[in-house]
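Hi Y.,

Following your request, here is the sequence exactly as I used it, all 170 residues.
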Amino acid sequence: MMAQHLIIGQILKPRGLKGEIKVFPLTDVIDRFNDLEYVLIENSADELKKYDIEYVKYQKDIVYIKLEQVNSVDEAERLREKYIKISRNDAIPLEEGEYFICDIVGLKVYDEESKYIGEIQDVIKTGSNDVYSVNSHDGREILIPAIKKVVKNIDLEKRTMKIQLLEGLI
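Below is the corresponding structure, written out as tokens. Let me know if you'd prefer a different format.
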């Protein structure tokens, strides 16, 4: 089942005295925060709470956000290390062959002869291409480069990925 909400950032700490928060973006499109009217943040009861965005600023690879409901350092401090989420409906449309990380994690990986390899545990961003960390059936970690030469098919409905094993990959 695909997640209803996508993580787009993590709150690092408060900034200033009026409740502004410093956010590490977890999205490939950093300026996507400009298009949002609100974000969702988990509260202490693990429920998502809606926060309206007052303004957004950028400094290098960091985002500073002022939320309308957060007006002090203490209120901002309570949000430290929490994840900022959005509804999947508010996500930036993906190009063909692109996937959200949360949809890739958990896929069952098979080779071209349908032999089970393992399950994707994590997606590692390397700069040139992503790498899928697969927990193999015998407990080893296998690193699969996310390139067309290796990844032959991804079926999100069946929650599977077919790969071509290159020499030395396992």
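Helices lie at 73-77, 101-104.

Thanks again,
Q.
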